């Protein structure tokens, strides 16, 4: 069991698609996942974050950094930071961009530093895809280990590649494993 708050901003739905995929994986692993759109925060959302074992941080990469809407949310947590109310919670980050590189690492680094400022425990990516593992075609295709980094595809029913969707699923499974271990 465990509670996970999945915070996100999504301009056109790509980040939300990853958030949904992670939430489903968490649910299958017995974790209660709450999706939180940071542009529409309620008091209940803030309480859910306060009660969560893990807070996931999801934002698209815009102009080589996280989208401004998500940064506004980060800045709004400064009172929480000053009291370190999120200290020792698990944290993990995910982002998406159009280009395979797309400067997504910059976004994940921002999210990571944010979590470190809050005294949180960072969970990164553990998936080794092709070309190292020949049977893992499309998994962690961007070769990024700081977090989940996906790339858009033109197929709007998918939004990101099948491999990225599967990577998001495995990312959710990893968070669930970490929550189980950290909750002992
Ligand atoms: C203002 C803006 C800036 C962007 N900057 C980048 C960028 O630096 N690198 C990149 O690869 N894609 C960039 N993109 C593309 C987005 O990252 C991509 O469309 C992403 O899927 C958007 O996710 P969302 O639908 O959750 O908002 C940008 C898009 C916008 C609207």
Please explain how this structure is put together:
This protein is of the alpha/beta class and 184 residues long. The protein contains 6 helices and 8 strands. The strands form 2 sheets. Strands 1, 2, 3, 6, 7 and 8 form a 6-stranded parallel β-sheet that branches. It has a two-stranded antiparallel ribbon with strand order 4-5. The protein is globular and about 45 Å long. The N and C termini lie close together (11 Å). It binds flavin mononucleotide. Flavin mononucleotide binds at residues 10-15, 60-64, 96-99, 102-103, 152.
- The CATH architecture classification is 3-Layer(aba) Sandwich
The shape, in one word, is globular
Give Rg in angstroms: 15 Å
Instruction: Determine the strand fraction and express it as a percent band.
Output: 15-25%
Task: Provide the CATH superfamily.
Answer: Flavodoxin domain
CATH topology: Rossmann fold
Mean pLDDT: 97
Number of domains: 1
Ions, cofactors, ligands: which are bound?
A: flavin mononucleotide
Helix content: 25-40%
CATH class category? Alpha Beta
Order of helices and strands: EHEHEEEHHEHEEH
User: Which structural class is indicated by helix and strand composition?
Assistant: alpha/beta
InterPro entries: Flavodoxin/NO_synth (IPR008254), Flavoprotein-like_sf (IPR029039), FMN_Rdtase-like_dom (IPR005025)
GO molecular function: FMN binding; NAD(P)H dehydrogenase (quinone) activity
Pfam families: FMN_red
Domain Flavodoxin-like: 4-150
